[in-house]
Amino acid sequence: MENTRCAWVGKDQIYIDYHDNEWGKPVYDDKILFEFLVLESFQAGLSWITILKKRENFRKAFANFDVEKIANFTEDDVEKLVLDEGIIRHRGKINAAINNAKLFIELQKEHESFSNFIWKYVNHQPIVNNWNSIKEVPATTEISDQIAKDLKKIGFKFFGSTTIYAHMQATGMVNDHTKDCFCK
């Protein structure tokens, strides 16, 4: 008997693995939180499966998501990334990743970790929703609106409320597995 999963998963093994092993599981590790921030910012306007299929290429192109290294990327690095067919070659998003890395480091210093900063929005506890169907799952919430507003004020790029809510789902700040999902 096969496990019942959230309706968005489909049959693609990369989606199945992501859903079963990562999506909705709380992440407090700054390195992983940063990885998801980079990936989510590149996802804006694209499907998540596109990003997942390029994840290893992103990992190589973006120094294994080492925030310090990315914060120090130069214009030469940007030019190499724009030519890298393994990633999304969007100059604005590449520059945003570098900008956001610098701001991420500032938030780490100010709050002892980025995890402390981001998780405070949910009182350091995952929000566990009880959706009957994927149709009930929102694209944004008041909390994602606030985080997006605060990050924009700090200077983060490519982080609207929808992207932030996706980040919250990916890192387990919210658990949006539907009631029938075995991961619930």
Automatic annotation (TrEMBL):
How would you classify this enzyme at the top EC level? hydrolase
NCBIfam families linked: tag (TIGR00624)
- An MF annotation (GO) of this entry: metal ion binding
As recorded in UniProt, coiled-coil segments are none
Q: Can you name this protein?
A: DNA-3-methyladenine glycosylase I
The EC number(s) attached to this protein equal 3.2.2.20
Organism of origin: Algoriella xinjiangensis
What function does this protein fulfil?
Answer: Hydrolysis of the deoxyribose N-glycosidic bond to excise 3-methyladenine from the damaged DNA polymer formed by alkylation lesions.
Q: Which UniProt keywords apply?
A: DNA damage, DNA repair, Hydrolase, Metal-binding, Zinc
- The UniProt annotation places Zn(2+) binding at 6, 19, 177, 181
